[in-house]
Queue: 2 jobs
Job 1
Amino acid sequence: MGFYGEIKDLLKSKKGVLLDIDGVLLNNGNPIPGAREFVSFLKNLGKPFLCITNTTIKSKSEILKVLKNCGFEIEKENIITSVNVANNYLYKKYGDAPIAAYVSNSILEDLSSLNLKAKDPMAVLVGDVGEKFNREILNDIFNKLMNGADFFAFHKNRFWKVGEKLFLDLGGFISALEYSSGSNAKIIGKPSQIMFEESLKSIGLKSDDVLIIGDDYESDILGAEKVGIDGILVLTGKYSKRTLKIKNFLPKFLIKDLYELMD
Ligand SMILES: [Mg+2]
């Protein structure tokens, strides 16, 4: 049995699939060749799938709209974001206690279970607020942490790229806050276990029964493997074969694109 035969068999052996969005289904808001076909392929096989994303600037309904406009056969229940996971996780932990959220206004609709209040919060939740990350806001969060609020962040990504320009991502700000307050942020999004466990609950399957397809080796693949989910790295996003070699990343399952998983 050849390598590609095995990888198709891996997909066949699973009851459901988790799909990363950026770099797997979309690149810069455009569908990646093979992605729409793959979603239809899964539907024809009757395998449930869930798109899981760390984005903290788009609500689930906005993401759904983008995917539908691109021609994906996707419904709202096929998507889970780190914001949805934060909403469920923090509600379970804090109920109606006040939580201060430093997030983009566009995602507030996905935090509707929480009692969002800036004053005397039990916890602070920090996402990407773009241009608003100034000294004043950082100092405000810092003081809440010093007053004993628990610390949550969507992710700790180091940087991101828009066109040819690199930008500091949330991780740099979170690290600064951790350093000064001496309190470590609990991460909600990938590669956190919280994200994968909530995703399994949402799709209604056990870790053995699903696989994840992602373009980020650390966040999608290694994170999922920690909770017992097999991962396939696809090279349509942030990694090329060359970068994998430079970084010494050795994914167990590697595909060039999603066509390799279809008959
Ligand atoms: Mg990705």
Job 2
Amino acid sequence: MKKATALRVWLTRSFKPFLFRGEADERLNFQEVKRVGLYVHIPFCETICGFCPYCKSPYESKKAARYVKALIGEIRMIGKQCAGVKEATSLYFGGGSPALLREYIGEIVEAVGGYFRVTQGIGVELRPSDVNVETLLSLKRAGVSKISIGVQSFQSAALAQLGRPAPDTAAIKSALAQVPFETVSVDLIFATPRQTFEDLRRDIDTAFAIGANHAAIYPFVNFSFAQNRGGTMGEREKRALLYRIGEYCEGKGYVRTSVWTFAKESGALYSSMTRDNFLGFGCSATSLLMDQFKINTFSVDEYINRVGETRLPTSLTLRFTRRQRMVYYLFWTAYTARIDPRGFEDTFGVALEKEFGLELFLARAAGLIEKKNGIYRLTRRGIYYYYYFEQFYTLAYIDKMWGVMRKTAFPDRIAL
Ligand SMILES: C[S@@+](CC[C@H](N)C(=O)[O-])C[C@H]1O[C@@H](n2cnc3c(N)ncnc32)[C@H](O)[C@@H]1O
Ligand code: SF4
């Protein structure tokens, strides 16, 4: 049995695979959920990068306008299922390249605001070339308070490997100084082939020097359907690099806000995934609720058609057993590098130790977690194993699922 499967069987205490079926609920159960996050996907890019697995297609202005109309239609279909205005923690725009639709962001935010009151800010993912005064001002006017810039690297070797243009650091620095945001995050990728710690250290320093107050340092994933050059880094080297990144950032006084992210200032936070429950709108967007995990179609045309028929554009639905839902919860909570037993009990009405006493005991004995002031924290070793497991999860589950969904708008089923 493969490692990812064995772990799933053990944690869920069931041989049943995660079964995603080609079925959709037209009504979603989010009305009673206490903390819901919102995500909007914009699937358009000017140029397509070979390493990137996300759902995107070449930008066409007419198609983009039809997409926005459908997107607002989906927001309304779901939003009106809740009486009154529901509180939502955050709203994130990801892609793709959301700034290509900058003229529509205000309209989309307004549509969301008809049904949800966002309490912790609005975030938008940007390409380095989007970081100019005009775009930043238009985002600010739409209510955006956080931005995340997909730099990946400032080093020419890594950029060449990823097929990305060099970011104009002076222009970015100047625009950020003129138009400040509560959170300015920079995405960096680590463990690209032949990358050294010195390369990464320079990337981290440059990110903070040009005005970021938060950095997301993602491990490079070589998706089977991506067009990557140059292979991957060995596991031992990755581990050493991961440890050194942590030591370097913590030595500089940056606070680890999740397994991959570091904040230079308190209050700087950018994460669409660390939510107990979330609703996703747009192509390929996912929703995680107490009873199900669902994924919208990856096809822009089919998305527009479905919403045009006033049907939700759901492609696949996974219905959770209670135990599976708990494992999902723990997986995403552990991403923040801490697990608060009170949050678990609040969500499931049962003590964490009662459900996962053996797993917690073994994880502590193996030095993966430690308990301080009633909260479990991932140790340095725990962070590495989280990373290791997440890599398995990404390659065993996400790679397979996205590989199918890129080709088939509405598959019958996928068992993982
Ligand atoms: C939707 S993407 C890009 C956002 C924006 N369109 C850009 O190009 O800058 C969000 C982030 O995912 C990360 N990412 C994309 N592909 C990745 C891969 N194969 N491995 C690791 N991280 C990846 C990158 O850091 C990227 O900035
Ligand atoms: S990395 Fe960004 S610009 Fe490149 S294809 Fe992915 S979403 Fe588009």
